[in-house]
TrEMBL record:
Protein name per the record: Head completion protein
Pfam families on file: Phage_GPL (PF05926)
Species assigned in the record: Alkanindiges illinoisensis
Length: 150
């Protein structure tokens, strides 16, 4: 029999609700979406997720108008009974959480293998940030990339 220190996790049943305009986010959904294992405690993950919800809400504040009661108002359709915007909102928050978790946890091992692992995580952190920005851009109805001529 083998021992896997971070293999199992207990469902947290923790949800984060902010302004009623935005959908609730379940901590377990974040874990599953961006594959965060049990080495990150629910308490730590919850704090990081709250920070990301605050940031994503700040970036989407321009969508809150008297005509739009929820973020779903801006959805172009539904999948499995949920508006597109719910999935994109979860993606934005979860990818922001993944970037922060990878940044924090890569610095705990200062050995040579730890330094190599930290270097290996840098592209993953950048990809998570990119995915967060893309989800936000999609919600805002904008293209993923904006190019300006100098």
């Amino acid at each position: 029999m083998s021992f896997v220190a971070n293999g199992n996790k207990t469902p947290s049943q923790i949800t984060i609700s902010s302004d009623p305009f935005y959908p609730e986010i379940a901590l377990d959904d974040i874990r599953e979406t961006v594959r965060i294992d049990g080495t990150v405690t629910n308490e730590r993950l919850n704090q990081i997720a709250i920070e990301e919800v605050i940031d994503v809400n700040r970036l989407l504040i321009s969508l809150k108008t008297p005509e739009a009661q929820t973020l779903a108002h801006y959805s172009a359709g539904f999948i499995a009974g949920k508006p597109y915007t719910d999935y994109l909102y979860l993606s934005a928050v979860a990818n922001g959480v993944a970037a922060k978790v990878n940044e924090k946890y890569r610095s705990y091992d200062s050995s040579n293998s730890g330094n190599k692992r930290a270097d290996d995580l840098t592209p993953s952190i950048d990809e998570s940030r990119r995915n967060k920005n893309w989800a936000i851009q999609q919600i805002l109805g904008k293209n993923h990339t904006v190019v300006e001529l100098i």
